[in-house]
Amino acid sequence: QKVSVEVLDHLEHLALVDFRDLEGVERLQKAIQFADQLHEVNTDGVEPMDSVLEDRWCLYLRADDVTEGNCTKDLLENAREKVEEYFVAPPGNIPLLKLEERDTFLQGS
């Protein structure tokens, strides 16, 4: 199943992912084919679940014991871009091809 230029354009803007190369488009098509298998599952009469663990009455969280800390400066040295003490993600928009240019590119895929 081929992915249309319009769908690629929409996904790129939603996810800020670049599908400009053939590998990216093929990976997306394989992911869609894999997910399409879910349509074959009969879910008639099956109620939606709030949690995959809804058979348990209480869900317990582990204790949050901080063993190290005060390393904000070291961590922020890994950021490509930061504002004050925060990572900027994604670090800038990907320049996308115009629809006409992508349509030409997808003809080869």
Automatic annotation (TrEMBL):
Signal peptide: none annotated. InterPro entries: Asp/Glu-ADT_sf_sub_c (IPR036113), GatC (IPR003837). SUPFAM superfamilies: Glu-tRNAGln amidotransferase C subunit. It holds the Pfam family GatC. One of its GO terms (biological process) is mitochondrial translation. Keywords: Transferase. This is GATC amidotransferase. It comes from Vireo altiloquus. The gene is Gatc.
